[in-house]
Amino acid sequence: MADLWDEAKRALGEIATMAAKYDIDGVDIYFVNDRKQGIGLRQTADAVIALFDSIEPAGADSEIAGRLEEFLLPYLNRAEKYQQAVELGTAAHLPKVRPINFIVLTDGVPSDDPESVIVSAARRLDAQNFPLSQVGIQFVQLGDDPEATEVLQHLDDGLGRAYGIRDIVDWTLLPEGRLDASLLTKILLGGINRRVDGKAGH
């Protein structure tokens, strides 16, 4: 656990540094089992390292669905409100809702039900004909837990066919010691490109 935690800390610190060049908003970091967070981190890795060092990784529960829902629901509400305003010609006073991508770093099996949260979000996106790149969720599995692999691979490959929805999920398996900022960037961009190129379930 400690080695994987340190890998994530180093990689996300590098991502925050890169964000200064490519994203004026920076990077937001949240944890599944702790309410501490870092918002708009960029320019240096120091804030990311300090954030990670303030948290003690512990516990087997991984309530990924609950945390995803916390962020997806308000985002989708804003996106739908903005799109409706565009259609009515009243969007000038509203901030534009930019596409969003979640990178979920995990080493185990979710202890709740991310499938239902993802399916619900994809259905809302389909209903409003949002671009395929509007929302993306990249699961990055650290380590080689076979149960986690089975669950995450299903979220990646099985939901589009099972529910007739767009595919907003990608999954990457990384052996321990492989995680770094350049690889995270490739994973993120690869997921966006696959969705835009038609890797959709409808």
TrEMBL record:
<dbReference type="InterPro" id="IPR036465">
    <property type="entry name" value="vWFA_dom_sf"/>
</dbReference>
<protein>
    <recommendedName>
        <fullName>VWFA domain-containing protein</fullName>
    </recommendedName>
</protein>
